[in-house]
Records
---
Amino acid sequence: MIVDMHVHTLVSSPCSVIDPVECIERAIELGLDGICITEHDTHEGAGVVKEIAAGFPEIVVFAGMEVMSREGHLLVYGYGKDIGGVPQAAEIVDMVSSNGGIVVPAHPWRQPFGWYSGVPGTPIEDTAFPKLFSVIEKYNGLQTIRQNARGKEYCDMMEISGIGGSDAHRLDCLGVAVTEFEDNPADERELAETIKSGRYEAKLTDRYFEMHEE
Ligand SMILES: [Zn+2]
Ligand SMILES: [Zn+2]
């Protein structure tokens, strides 16, 4: 099952111009089996897209969220409530993992808003990062080729899993980075379990490399 794990729509991300209906139609055209809507600090947009998607049996829409923590952006899966107020990453991890969800740091090497973006120059290994996260966003469609290579190196070095998502804010970016799951999660709870299992592979598509030619 191929899922774009990181998508913003105009419903609740003012930085995105993606219309929810077009988003679903394009995802189907691209051959994606699922998309996860991860608006900033709210599930609102995801709820709207899920309702629309009820008319499209070809695709599964999951509700996730991208939360602003003090240390950087975090993707949250399998946790139904909104998280605001820019808490510390450790607090978010506690809250989400004790409720069965999982927190995955978004675009850890992208500046700004990557991990410890407020402290440029601090190597990630010297922060709380390795303790907090057992899965990272290995490939992000808005990271450079170098930053995504760093994600792969980190996963290999730490022997942890990594997911992939486009972080699309424009329709042409949808699906440039994806996660190919061995399982077929049907809802947010199953998606979180699947992410924890490590039974998947993050992928960057040819379109990603066309967009990021150096
Ligand atoms: Zn972000
Ligand atoms: Zn994002």
---
Amino acid sequence: MNTIVALATPPMKSTIHIIRLSGPETYNIINKICTKKIEKNGHSIQNNKIINKNNNKIIDDVLLMKFVGPKSFTGEDLIEINCHGNLIIVNKIIKLILENGAIMAQPGEFTKQAFINNKLDISQANSINYLINAKTDFQAEVSLNIILGNAKNKIKLITEKLFQIIGTLEVNIDYPEYYDIHDVKSQEVKKTIDEIYKDINEIITDYNNNYHLFNGINLVILGKPNSGKSSLLNTILKMDRAIVSDIPGTTRDFIKESINIDGLNFNIIDTAGIRESDNQIESMGISKAVEISKNADLVLYVIDNSISISKEELDWINKNINSKLIIVKNKEDLKDSNPTLDGVKISAKNNNIDNLKKEIFNIFKLNNDAQFFITSDYEKNILLEINNNLDKANELIKEEASLDLVISFLEFAYKLLKTFLGEEKDFDLLDELFKNFCLGK
Ligand SMILES: Nc1nc2c(ncn2[C@@H]2O[C@H](COP(=O)(O)OP(=O)(O)OP(=O)(O)O)[C@@H](O)[C@H]2O)c(=O)[nH]1
Ligand SMILES: [Mg+2]
């Protein structure tokens, strides 16, 4: 097993930096590069000096946080070096550690090690990355709760229930005279499988229904040239991000910005105006805009409400936009030429968009009853696979199929639950899980 090292803090000027060192050689290596001896006995913080013993030059005065495995984040011997926040010093210390036998860690490798050593389950490992990247209070709170173990506890209970069911069925195979699964017990088994299925399904549904809270709400601004799309983007962002002009076709490509408003994270895309165009680049921009709107959580279709909207435009909207849609009647400071058209009146130019904000928040408000145990599609897919197997087992019970077959599906579901808990390692899944982590985590 390797001993790994990496800078855990961002590589820039800082007040302090933290270098992490983890693995079986941790204490050997650290003792080769420090002036005072570091004993391998329990966790503590100690002051020390990093020294290059080849030339006896002190590199830095540091604080060491030492841990002895398995009582550490990674479950291995681990030392965190708090050094001065200068990258020249950081590089010298890391170089010295590498020369003394460690290797550079891959992104996410410390967390991966923690996962391998049963310090974390899949949802916790995933949530660490999610917490680091959280953009809203909601995202930070949910991921912290998961790191603290709420999902792990819930999945553990489910796993125990399933274990008992499998046990009951196995007894039935070994001592068939004991019960007859196809009369008394089958209803009981089926009921418990249904309960487990329902519990897992609730986790998936709460995640799906609130997907936008985890991943940001994709808002796409569409509409004809000059309707005021870029003005609306600028008003939402409260800055002059996009060029606004009275020349139709000002925006040619799309402009993407991310912003937090009152606890929600929005990814907003301003697009090229929808119209027939001879200009190749503009045409590409327009077709791309329509394409992007297909993946939108909400399309804001902006019209210049001082001009009456044509039947062709309304038909075009009906035909081309399948996502959730709000017609935004812009330029309410001018005359209302579409009094009977359903929509939200605003004036982007005059920063008057409160009605629209209210409407958007009505659509995406947080359901307080929802509970959150996962933060990614990766975890969701494992749970879906568990439920597929439970479903098959239930079908087979209904069909009075052989118990061996029923058990095989339940056992696979059980194995997946254990994988979720990190107690069973599926090494093919690991790379997928840790691919988005940053260095030093
Ligand atoms: N009176 C009035 N004019 C507005 C309003 N919003 C935008 N405009 C004007 O409408 C014109 C077009 O605005 P843009 O925001 O560039 O329109 P766009 O939809 O992005 O246009 P393209 O990029 O060409 O597709 C500019 O002259 C804006 O100042 C509004 O609320 N009231
Ligand atoms: Mg524009």
